Amino acid sequence: MTAIMAPTRAARAWAGLALLSGSWLLGLSYYQPASWPGWLAVTGAGTLLLSGAVRRRPGGLEAAPTALPLIPVIWLTPWPYRLAFILIALGAAAGHAPIPRRWPRAMASGMTTAGVILLAQALGMTAYAHVTARAHELPAPLGHLLAFTARLLGIDAGLASNDHGRDVALSSMRQTNMLGATWELFLDPPTMCFLIGGAVLLVLAAWSELPAGGRIKPLARMGGGLALCVLCWLPVRSGLLMAVYMHRLLKTDYDAPLDLMTPFWDPWVHLLLLSGPVLLAWRFIGIPVARGAVTGGSDSPSVTGVNPAAAARVGPRFAVVAPGRFILAVSLFGLAGAALTAGWFHEPHGERKPGRVLIDEYHSDWEPSEPPFDTERYGRNCAYDYSCIADYCSRFYEVGRLHAAIDDAALKDCDVLMLKTPDALAYAAAEVDAIRRFVARGGGLLLIGEHTDVFRTGTHLNGVARAFGFRYRPDCLFGMESVFKQRYQPGRLAHPIVRHVPPMDFATSCSIDPGWSPGRAAILSTGLKNRLADYHAANFYPQARDDAQMRYGAFIQLWTTPYGLGRVAAFTDSTQFSSFCAFDPGKSELMLGMIEWLNHAGRTRASGMMTMAGWLLLAAATWAARPVRDAWLVLLAVGALGACAGAVGARHVSTLPPPPRLADRPMTRVMIDRTVCASRLPVNGFIAGNADEFGIFERWVLRLGYFTARRTGPELFTGDLAVFLHPDRTVPRAFRDGLAEYVKNGGKVLILDSPSNRGGTANSLLHPFGLRVKAPAEVLKGRLETVGGLPAIPVEESCEVFGGEPLARLDGKAVAVTKTYGMGTVTVIGFGGRFTDANMGVDPDAVPDPGMREVFDFEFRLLRSIVEGRPATRPSSATTPASAP
To answer: Which residues contact 342 (CB under 8 A, 6 or more apart)?
Structure first.
């Protein structure tokens, strides 16, 4: 019995494999944002085409043992990886269904085959992202191969090497185009997935069709043929892309901007380019089938024309294998999966140190951490600093500053050293040696850089970073589609540093080049492209346009590495922690996460030992599973369950709890509601000056020494003051009851409403407190009549507020009131529009004139009166009845 070709079935199988291989660019935001409709269509079509490719379905006794272990795996695994396990479970279950028709069985086989292929490709995509994030550049011989391919196509080309990597220089009359000689150009993710999935397909088909003693040679021959087909195709596909680039260049008007890179990261272009390996594999490889079997595209699960003895060797043995051997194999596979993933995801804590943090100010004039961000200093420099984040960290750690050169004596009583954007001075060799010794004996080192080596910050940081095996690249990272927006959301298995970080928006970061140094990427992002520094610009910031030299795909934005008994963390976006955006979602949590992780010392061999044990267990499991031929799906399912349990368990054990607050450092938290308020707030501190945004009002809270946080649901009730800015969403009953309980127990609430908040829902919030707002028939405007020392600022419109002690009136009507409820208070402002960005001076970096200063002082005094319990009203027995119309 040997392997022959099944032409029709092989054509469908390789085409289906190509669709599954290309689906990853649609399901993952690897280049462009994920397209779920496209992903579903492509994976569905690929699964259909694979129906019958592997003709023997799972054995009957195998269905339930396969599906059951995958239930928790499906629940814990995110999309699109989850689909692999869903297809395996459905295929195993459907293959056992008592359906007399042939096509459901073929479909069950297709689902199982597609699921196993997708699982292998998922591992390949993960490895591809981590490898290319370390180094996008091809080795020199492959770079020369790309240049040779371009010359064969008639393009004047050569390979150019520079400090940033290797580029293929494509000459034209307009300019010389430096096209990055990268792995993404030569071996793209879909082609890599096709190679991996093709190997899996051949193994599954051979396992299904061929006897145990006749598989190795056909598999080796066909696997070698598949690898050769793909290797021959790689320069062809790269040449096609370069030819398309040059064609589009020549068709572009001379004065028109060049926008030629979109085909390089278009998922559909990559999917189309898989037609080459599909045709080669169909023509020269086929798929394994038994000699004498039906080869004309039949999906029959039987093997015909085979002698009974051979058929018996092919047939299932799951039912007759010794139970003890089977249980041993299953157990070993589960343990192997758990040990391997636990070894990968385990991050040993080490011993927690006292938490003495030193911020280096000696080498940096930019983004200083002092003086404080207060109510007296204004202008750009007082917001583009680290004073607020340093003050916030001081509530959890002992924070000090270094104002002299770094040496052993300066670091004697330090646990975490922060080097941030050193633009003023480079680090001397003696300082670098002192820092290295500090880390080796258990210290934590935090490096914070910025895009494009701005002000030579990257150059100065690299003087230290190279001592630990990595460097900052002089680039800036943009999103593929939304150039200035990058949303980061930690996954379930995220690094301990970011486990408590909510979804966060990057500003513009650079990337880390870790080389092949040991360490892990705490933040590895895809869907990005980079541009190198433009040294003609004052801040080295390049224009946000595409060019051929861009690298694209995966990049490292937070790198961690051990050194001696200590740790190093390197972050790439210093803007995140400037006072104007340090308390946007995720930013302060990230700073605490980095410091807390660095505030632990000591290394263990647990991860390496678990990984070694995992490989030994896998070898033993493979040996024990030799007689269990038709139980491979059960072994795979249990191995996946073990891997999932090991990963989740390791990350749970590795997770660091939030740092405890220092008892002698009180902290006031002002929570900004995002549950019932849709009013816009800044992203990365950008103030647009619109009439429906409250960015400046939110930022000015920090000037009082308070700290803000945007929260939803019950988390809103964990602070000292809950602020509602133009509430306009439906108020859930449970949320309103929670608000009432919060105030009753001593919480403080501030609600800003105004006539411009059409469809507002403030009254739903105020109902438990006997308060009410109403827009008057005539516009209430003019200068406020205030009490309690609040400035009499002018307002253009206001709602009338009923109930509570008046804080301000217009035309004798209360437009701001406060009321005690239980142990807390509720304060309502009817002229909330006065505090929108358009009415707060538009530019938060401008020095306010006396009139605007009055508005700022109104906010400051109002917040202090609420939070600190200062009198805001004169004693009065009169109140405005809440039942007023």
So the answer is: 610, 614, 646, 647, 649, 650
